[in-house]
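Researcher: Please translate sequence to structure tokens.
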Amino acid sequence: MHRYRTHTCGALRRDDAGKTVRLSGWCHRIRDHGGVLFIDLRDHYGITQIVADPDSPAFKLAETLRAEWVIRVDGKVRLRPAGTENPELPTGEVELYVSEIEVLGPAAELPMPVAVEQDYPEEVRLRYRFLDLRREKPHNNIMLRGRVIDSIRRRMREAGFFEFQTPILTASSPEGARDYLVPSRLHPGKFYALPQAPQQFKQLIMVAGFDRYFQIAPCFRDEDARADRSPGEFYQLDLEMSFVTQEDVFAAVEPVIRGVFEEFGNGKPVTPRFPLIPYSEALAKYGTDKPDLRNPIVMQDVSEAFRGSGFKIFATILASDPAAAVWAIPAKGGGNRAFCDRMNAWAQGEGQPGLGYIFWREGEEGGAGPIAKNIGPERSRRIAEQLGLGIGDACFFVAGKRQDCIKFAGPARTRVAEELGLIAKDRFEFCWIVDFPMYEWNEEEKKIDFSHNPFSMPNIAAEDFLALDPNDKEKILSIKAVQYDLVCNGVELSSGAIRNHRPEIMRKAFAIAGYGEDVLERKFGGMLRALSLGAPPHGGIAPGIDRIVMLLAGEDNLREVVLFPMNQRAEDLMMGAPSEVSPKQLKELHIRLDLPRK
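Model: Translation complete:
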């Protein structure tokens, strides 16, 4: 017989009754039923019920066992007595009558229980992450992550992509988030950087002629944590393709992502064909460039209903600023004062003066509420007709410049839908956000800046771009870039682009944004040289693995699907990182500390 087990704790079935077997695992739960001990023995594969009574030679030792002790047990498999079966367990028809127990690893008093799924403070969970991972839900999340990555790799290879590994120690990037720096012992005073993404390397792979690349790539960014962003490191499905248009990238990526969500989405419907939504349309309709399309609310511009109206606040905003507008957030089924007042109070809690509204009810001409009284029945009816609203419905309003009011209109749209239960949460709704502006106006510095990604191809003919007058602000701000984001259920999974592979176009693009030739050469000289030696048109994208698994697992926080995550302050509480190093190590690296005074 094997030293530790003949079967796993998830293997035994009715057909095994009568067999003598050996199991090893953790004591998940221990129950004393009138002198008979029942022990749920757990390993990676499942749980088997162990029984010890006073007639068992192992009974005395069994009485000393405690939760999470690691033990080996020998015994005979028998069917559970009728009526005591557990249909929720694959092993629920059998139990093991124990004849021998060996304690392999006793456990001290636990800082947190394993056999329950209740919430515990995140600090405790991260400090004892190895215990936390013994719990069913975190354990299943990590196994799901592994299966998702396996599926992605298989699908990418089937689509003709080849997996390559790019360097981890590289040069510091002048753009993006802060780098994690690694001092060089052999080159005093110089530093490597951990890659924020394999961006330049994957483009160089295309320049080298490999055509289709992918990698489950680790990325490192020294930035603050959020629920949808891990501090320190994260993983992405990094890919790049040569001789492709934007549509070719979509055609390659969609089947992979759709297939993964269909495979692991527990039967939830997945968008059959991801719609393309222009950036400006996404802002106008949804108040965000990361729209949750499970939310059916579509905002509309209702400025004309307020222009010159008796509602002086909005009328004045529209009259004083040609760029201002009034955005309507329709609320089907929200047509009562209690709901409207609740939304108004929520807006005030968000730092807004309030949230204007109209609601429609029986016996009210035009509409109800302060705004309806000020603009009159005819304008109220016009708004209702434009938005397709009627008795029992409501509408909320936000006014101002689009770039300012969407910061509040988008969350307000979400809040209305959540309050009214309008969001179809049992599905995965994808879309592509396209046609991002290439440039934007920096009001503070009174200059043109890149809007999104400086290395994207402008979406106009090369000769037209090269002929641009750098002083033609209106024309420049109208230029779109061949950039795209992949969004699912309001979560941005990825950004991508068709790259700027023409050195002369790159020089022009940076010159428009105020970068001199010397700056461009100093920061991006290596990439410029590579592109000048025969670069194919290429593009790619990098969906986040952590965010994909988070959505599939139904979690709201990335730390729930990462094996050993850091906390929000980028600390590894379990391993004690970051930590101080010895004076000897600092001396070898020619580093002297200049710490801030406490």
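Researcher: Any highlights?
Model: The mean pLDDT is 94.
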